[in-house]
Each structure stands twice: as structure tokens, then as C-alpha cells.
Amino acid sequence: MNNNPRKKEIISKAARLFKKRGYSAVTMRDIADSLNIKAASLYNHINSKQEILATIIIEIAEAFTSGMVEVQTPQLTTQEKLQKIIELHIDLTVKNPEAMACLNNDWMHLEEKLPYFVKMREDYEENFRAILKKGIAQGEIGSRDIEIMLFSMLSTLRTLYIWYTKKDGVSAVSLKNDLPVTLLKGIIK
């Protein structure tokens, strides 16, 4: 993101509004009102509501892409890679639940950047799938339906922002300790 502090503030406020009401329901006037400025003043820092959405979503999607690249080092076992993916989701969710909400709920409103985002998302999922396939082939994880494993893990991780922001008393540390174990080993003793 740009180093302009006012632009960062605008994007941050907009992300909160998008999370609360959805991209389509938020106007530039709503964003300006939340900042106690005139809507016309927003255009000194940004070009459009679409630019704000694209900034929010592309920034976090690129963080996931970078994290996935780091996870794919050959020295790591499948379990270590999966643990790091889970930790990546936790870190990004805890750091910016509003961006996670936009990523999950408003990505389809991207215009110019939509193909770029969809490609990143597909590549991320394919890399995740490849880790699971390799883990099964090497006997590191149980031989189960890969699509069900992928769906189960990603469904939990992608919606973590909904649950985490409502749970007082659950620390990021506790989440990083318990969620990987729960997702990777289950709950049966």
C-alpha cells in the first residue's frame, strides 16, 4: 500500500464499512462521513471506490501468495507446510479481519483486477492441493479425498475472521497453538 497516511486511513475506514455493510451498500459519501470530511475531498487521495476495494483485496491476496511461496520450501514436511499455511491465515486474519471480509465477500465486485485476483486464488488453491497430494503420496498424511480436505481447511481458514472477531479471550497465540492441531489431527483422542 502507498505510504500516504491519509490514503491508508481512507482505505482502513472503507474496509471496516465494507465488512459491516458490504461493498455494494457503501457509498463514497459514507466513507467520507466516517472520516468527517466531504466526499469530494476523498478524490484528492483516491480515484474511486473500486480503487479502494482493489487495494484492500489485492494487497491481502498478494500476502497469501507470498506466504504460499515461502511455505513451498522442499526442506519442510507436509505437516510443517500445512501448519505454516494455517499460521499464515491466522496472522493475516488477526492483523486485518476487515480485509479478510472484503477478500471473501466482495472479490466478485473487482473490475479491472478481477482476472489477476482469480488467478492468484486459483494458484493458491492448486499449490495447497499439490501439498496435500504430495503428503498423501509420501505417506505423511492420511489418504483421504483431497478436495474434501482442501474444502474443510479452507472453509475454516477463510471464515476465521467472522468467528475470531466475536470471541473475546481467544488470543492469537492460543489460536496458533490449537487450530493447527485441530485441523491437522482432529478432535478424537
Overall description:
The chain is built from 10 helices and no strands. It has one domain (48-185): Orthogonal Bundle (Tetracycline Repressor, domain 2), CATH 1.10.357. The chain is mainly alpha-helical. The protein is elongated and about 60 Å long.
Number of helices: 10
What Rg, in angstroms, do the CA atoms define?
18 Å
CATH superfamily: Tetracycline Repressor, domain 2
**Which runs of at least 5 residues are low in confidence (pLDDT < 50)?**
none
Our estimate of the beta-strand percent is under 5%
Largest sheet, described in full?
none
Main structural class:
mainly alpha
Task: Look at the structure and give the CATH class.
Answer: Mainly Alpha
Shape: elongated
Domain count: the total is: 1
First-residue to last-residue Cα separation: 45 Å
Would you spell out the secondary-structure blueprint of this structure?
Elements: H1 5-21, H2 28-34, H3 39-42, H4 49-71, H5 78-95, H6 97-105, H7 114-137, H8 146-158, H9 160-164, H10 172-185
Keywords: DNA-binding
Organism: Planktosalinus lacus
DNA-binding region: 27-46
